[in-house]
Amino acid sequence: MDQGYRFREIWMNPPLRGPRLVAAAVALTLALGGCGKPADCPRCETLVIAALGEPDHLLSPFVWQSVGRDIGDLVYERLAILDPVRAPLDSTAYRAGLAERWERVDSLTWLFHLRPDARWQDGVAVTASDVVFSFEAHQDSALDAANRAALSDLRATTEDDRTVRIAFQSYRPDQLYDATSHVRVFPRHVWDSVPRDRWGASADPARLTGSGPYRVAEWRRGQLLTLEAVSASAPIRRITWQFAQGPDALTNLVLSGDVDLVETLPDQARLAEVSRAPHLKVISYPSAVYGFLGFNFARRGGWNDVRVRRALTLGLDRETLVRAIFGPGTAVPNGPLSAQLWLWETPPGAEGDSAAAVRLLDSAGWTPGRDGLRRQQSRSLTVDILVPGTSAPRRSLATAIQERWRRLGVQATVTVVDFPVFQERLGQGRFDTYIGSWLDEPHPRSLTDQWTRGGWGNLNYGKYASPAFDSVFALAVSEADSARARSYWRTALQTLNADAPAIWLFNPRNNAVVHRRVGADRFPPFAWLSDLPGWALADPASVQSRQ
Fold first, then answer.
1. pLDDT of 543
2. Which of the two ends of the chain, N or C, has the fewest CB atoms closer than 10 A to its terminal CB?
3. What radius of gyration, in Å, describes the C-alpha atoms of the chain?
4. What pLDDT was estimated at residue 440?
5. Using a CB cutoff of 8 Å and minimum separation of 24, what contacts does 534-539 make?
């Protein structure tokens, strides 16, 4: 299945094959050293993770990829951390981060008290001015941080050296989420002497200093990145990310034993092969990804009629379809969300109904000709499906949809392009439909960018607009009571689904591949490495001897 790489989209690079793959494995082995006794066994205290793609940067304002977020969360800290399965407006759902405690001053203001022992990895004490500096950087339009819009309504100031005041311009029930979840704090004394227009090009490991449990030790662009534990007593002293250039390369590295862990196996067809490897275990866990087929409402086509969109949905037995491609346990979403979001409810059946689809197409004036293709006057009912060539599952899904729509008399084509071209065409509106895949955030407000009028020019590539949905969406966002908010969100999703702006297709399960020497048995879907500091590692040789 797809590997979550970008926050916004899911993609895979072209495969790395032949001598380049062998060279990458050899380079990693040399970097980590061979295994003998624990005293001279770097690999015994080193966890090696394979990832598709490489982060552009680790400094929070420049992090757009999930692999960068995963690494950065071990280096930098946020003020507080939300339990992702609980509602963001629940003030009891947060645990201490860089701040040890916080309190509401009034309806617009919060105070955050930093941990007295908080230190940067160079030994300098963390202060309130560091927090303010980090917030201001995330709000800087020149840096254009991913979550800059979510911070536009607040201002961080220093109350004293250990206390940060965060004041909002207007009341919202989710203030605590915005105050704590978007900004990873970084040191003012390291970055304030560097002009901000040079920050993006300055990824020197010496500057990537945080207050988290790991520091950046080495970064070989295009090859690997290594973190080193701040505490000498940490069970895992080093973590190395090996950047594979494609799903085949990633799977082969895991099978060879050169890699200990991968977030999810990118090629479902190789799951059985991996499961048979004696040194590996597969841990299935829920994914926070939802996939869909989105329509382009800015382009004239039969899908502009809601009856046609509903017919195209009913023409698909979605549950059977996606489970055949993504594997058992794949769910069909009842809206633009994954099963991990606190709003999830068990969706109704997603089985197809060809007879109902035919009736809807007939009622919309699309009647079949002698060749079986549906026409309305002189227009044929044609639909093109745009997919990235780097995602084998989406290519397979598009082909299967094409065949099922053909049975309805719909002439569907599939256009496969490289991922950069895919993104370019989405941004330019050069598509009829596309199969997209988004990584959920714990707060459903992220749907603003994806499905409201406010998302035009952002992630709402199809330029969908529904005043009715936007209205109830605004009520849901502004409601402070959890029960009433859930009711508004339910109504918002029902309103959206009634208009069928997309066909909700899949919420897959991830299949993490883990070397048996790694003491991990679960992975939280929103932050899969959040339990890593507590894991234990065995000597690879001892695992080999037990097989």
1. 58
2. C
3. 25
4. 78
5. 534/235, 535/47, 535/235, 535/236, 536/235, 536/236, 537/44, 537/45, 537/46, 537/47, 537/235, 537/236, 538/44, 539/35, 539/38, 539/41, 539/44
